[in-house]
């Protein structure tokens, strides 16, 4: 099966490599700094137990060179989404699908607005992976997973053609060693992950500490609980049925996560890089305003961290 992956960062290089290695034909669209390393040496994939080099079937940084494929996986960061639209459109067959894997809840709608209806399949991934240098990706920890919608965003009944493509992608990911599935309730799953990531990113950066320190200290643990509750309140006010059980599940995941963990947004802000703040706590604030829900903690996080972003570091 032919699959286009947009972006060769932590997610894109990892998924391009494992899909190509397990027999899919991957076309990889990259920014110029990734082109020569991957074209000349393939993707070097380092995991806790293994090291391999995999050459994608095709790699390019030119939209005009892209072939159309039935599946496009968009892995750029949320603040890079607009710049990736031309390549996403050019690499998609008219009856194909685009899978989004960004953290947050806004990417599927943004891509749908740009590309049109019935193409965009929202998804999320559990993985810890990062680029060591262009062409070299390192994945740590347990087996990655991907959960995706069982139909494109906004499509009422699943069209059999699109359902077939989604099931085929799930199968290809499983063959690549990824725990993949498709669900009829992807919006709820996205919001559950949103509760987790906004808390890790927002409270972690505000505290300027590793997860274990602020999670287990009474006063800042209150912020963890408040953050999860605020995001859930926004979800519920938008009609998304995130439950008490979901809330407990997310708090449990935060409690079990490694004490030394930090979110990528925290690391980005600390390093003075562009961050996903506006699509994490910033999006919580915007989405809360739409439904009249008060989110004082995420408002504070957004305001304080935007100062850090403006200054160039935490
Ligand atoms: N990495 C992880 O462990 C996880 C990440 N996520 C989410 O996944 C998303 C991606 O994260 P991650 O992979 O870590 O981010 P990275 O920054 O590592 O990767 C994004 C890549 O996309 C490239 N890119 C940007 N614009 C374009 C474009 N127009 N065309 C082609 N490529 C482009 C970037 O190029 P350049 O390098 O030149 O900037 C970069 O290599 C984020 O939303 C993140 O929150 C979710 C779960 C886990
Ligand atoms: C879940 C987690 C923390 C893993 O990388 C993440 O998505 C991020 O750092 O942005």
Automatic annotation (TrEMBL):
Ketopantoate reductase C-terminal domain mapped to chain residues: 185-306
Domain of life: Bacteria
SUPFAM superfamilies per record: 6-phosphogluconate dehydrogenase C-terminal domain-like, NAD(P)-binding Rossmann-fold domains
Catalysed reaction equations from the record: (R)-pantoate + NADP(+) = 2-dehydropantoate + NADPH + H(+)
Keywords: NADP, Oxidoreductase, Pantothenate biosynthesis
Transmembrane segments: none
Gene3D superfamilies linked to this entry: N-(1-d-carboxylethyl)-l-norvaline Dehydrogenase, domain 2, NAD(P)-binding Rossmann-like Domain
GO cellular component terms, A-Z: cytoplasm
Biological processes per GO annotation: pantothenate biosynthetic process
Pathway(s) the chain acts in: Cofactor biosynthesis; (R)-pantothenate biosynthesis; (R)-pantoate from 3-methyl-2-oxobutanoate: step 2/2
Enzyme Commission number, as recorded: 1.1.1.169
Keyword NADP (UniProt): yes
Function: Catalyzes the NADPH-dependent reduction of ketopantoate into pantoic acid.
Family label: Belongs to the ketopantoate reductase family.
Protein name according to UniProt: 2-dehydropantoate 2-reductase
Annotated source species: Rarobacter incanus
């Amino acid at each position: 099966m032919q699959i286009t992956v947009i972006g060769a960062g932590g997610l894109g290089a990892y998924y391009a490599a494992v899909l190509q290695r397990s027999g899919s034909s991957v076309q990889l669209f990259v920014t110029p700094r990734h082109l020569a390393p991957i074209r000349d040496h393939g993707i070097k994939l380092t995991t806790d137990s293994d090291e391999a080099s995999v050459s994608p079937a095709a790699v390019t940084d030119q939209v005009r060179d892209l072939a159309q494929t039935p599946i496009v996986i968009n892995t750029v960061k949320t603040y890079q989404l607009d710049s990736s639209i031309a390549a996403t459109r050019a690499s998609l067959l008219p009856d194909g699908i685009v899978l989004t894997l960004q953290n947050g809840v806004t990417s599927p709608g943004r891509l749908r607005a740009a590309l049109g209806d019935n193409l965009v399949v929202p998804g999320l991934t559990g993985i810890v992976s990062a680029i060591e240098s262009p062409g070299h990706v390192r994945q740590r920890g347990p087996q990655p997973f991907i959960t995706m919608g069982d139909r494109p965003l906004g499509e009422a009944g699943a069209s059999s053609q699109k359902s077939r493509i989604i099931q085929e992608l799930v199968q290809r990911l499983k063959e690549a060693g990824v725990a993949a599935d498709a669900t009829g309730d992807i919006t709820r799953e996205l919001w559950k992950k949103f509760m987790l990531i906004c808390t890790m990113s927002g409270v972690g950066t505000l505290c300027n500490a590793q997860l274990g320190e602020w999670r287990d200290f009474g006063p800042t643990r209150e912020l963890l609980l408040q953050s999860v509750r605020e995001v859930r309140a926004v979800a519920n006010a938008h009609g998304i049925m995130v439950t008490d059980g979901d809330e407990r599940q997310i708090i449990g995941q935060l409690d079990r996560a490694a004490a030394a963990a930090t979110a990528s947004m925290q690391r980005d802000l600390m390093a003075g890089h562009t961050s996903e703040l506006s699509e994490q706590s910033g999006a919580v604030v915007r989405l809360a305003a739409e439904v009249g829900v008060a989110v004082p903690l995420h408002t504070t996080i957004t305001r304080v961290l935007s100062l850090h972003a403006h200054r160039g570091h935490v």
